């Protein structure tokens, strides 16, 4: 919660970073790329417990993301309670059933075929953690007055990317799940009207026989995603 008394500008020294040579920068960048090449979404999770402290640390990393006006318009609800996960699965599968029955449209459903998705979502109850990401449309000062948040979708997307990367760095698998609509999550998780659920992250260790869709390994080549001017 922000205080109006802390809104004045004050310059602090930049914390800096490693003083790498060009070769060291390239080596570090390549090492990170190779690490991220091993990140894949899976729907096959083990029920092996993951310590709460690991999840908290990863969310702390997500909270370091840049945001519009530094308003940090996000909230993460980390869920390990089996009964609550079961409720989320039941509600999510109901939305998915409507989606695959035609609500999603033929083109969208066709686009999902190579990924092997369907109505059943057992990973929502098998994985030890679900993290629901909420975007905050507005916030409140310490005196209760409201302030507007800026660049909310962009800010929350960056923080979510930080979180997915932190989870992978910690040796965990994750899966983004976006039942449509997701309004049921506000009521179920007692979140305010100022927040909108953007996705559910399924988090845990991959099952021993976990698989990934072959289609997910097809990535665009560099010339398709980069223009140098």
Strand order of the largest sheet: 1-2-6-5
Low-pLDDT windows of residues: none
In percent terms, what proportion of residues is strand?
Answer: 15-25%
Reported by name, the CATH topology is NADH Oxidase
Largest sheet data? 4 strands, antiparallel
CATH 4th-level superfamily: NADH Oxidase
Helix count, DSSP H or I runs of 4 or more residues: 8
Task: Note the overall shape.
Answer: globular
Distance linking N and C termini:
42 Å
CATH class: Alpha Beta
β-strand number = 6
Mean pLDDT across all amino acids: 94
Describe the structure.
By secondary structure, the protein is α+β, with helices and mostly antiparallel strands. It has one domain: NADH Oxidase (3-Layer(aba) Sandwich). The chain has eight helices and six strands; from the N terminus they run ααβαααβββαβαβα. The strands form two sheets. It has a four-stranded antiparallel sheet with strand order 1-2-6-5. The protein has a two-stranded antiparallel sheet with strand order 3-4. β3 and β4 form a beta hairpin. α2 crosses α6. The chain is globular, with a radius of gyration of 20 Å. The termini are far apart. The model has no long low-confidence stretch (mean pLDDT about 95).
Architecture blueprint of SSEs:
Blueprint: H1 22-36, H2 52-62, E1 74-79, H3 82-103, H4 106-112, H5 123-126, E2 129-136, E3 138-140, E4 146-148, H6 152-169, E5 173-177, H7 184-188, E6 195-204, H8 222-225
Antiparallel strand pairs: 1-2, 2-6, 3-4, 5-6
């Amino acid at each position: 919660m922000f205080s109006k008394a802390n809104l004045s500008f004050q310059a602090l020294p930049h914390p800096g970073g490693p003083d790498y040579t060009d070769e060291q920068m390239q080596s570090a960048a390549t090492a990170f790329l190779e690490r991220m090449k091993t990140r894949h979404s899976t729907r096959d999770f083990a029920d092996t417990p993951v310590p709460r402290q690991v999840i908290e640390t990863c969310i702390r990393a997500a909270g370091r993301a840049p945001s519009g006006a530094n308003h940090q318009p996000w909230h993460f609800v980390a869920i390990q309670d089996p009964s609550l996960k079961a409720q989320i699965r039941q509600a999510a599968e109901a939305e998915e059933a409507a989606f695959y029955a035609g609500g999603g449209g033929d083109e969208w459903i066709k686009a999902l075929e190579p990924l092997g998705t369907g109505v059943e979502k057992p990973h929502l109850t098998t994985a030890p953690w679900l993290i629901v990401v909420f975007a905050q449309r507005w916030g409140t000062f310490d005196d209760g007055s409201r302030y507007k948040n800026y660049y909310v979708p962009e800010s929350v997307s960056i923080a979510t990317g930080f979180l997915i990367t932190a989870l992978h760095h910690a040796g965990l698998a994750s899966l983004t799940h976006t039942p449509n609509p997701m309004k049921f999550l506000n009521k179920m998780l007692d979140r305010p009207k100022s927040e909108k659920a953007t996705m559910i992250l399924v988090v845990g260790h991959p099952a021993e026989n976990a698989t990934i869709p072959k289609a997910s390994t097809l990535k665009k080549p560099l010339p398709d995603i980069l223009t140098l001017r």
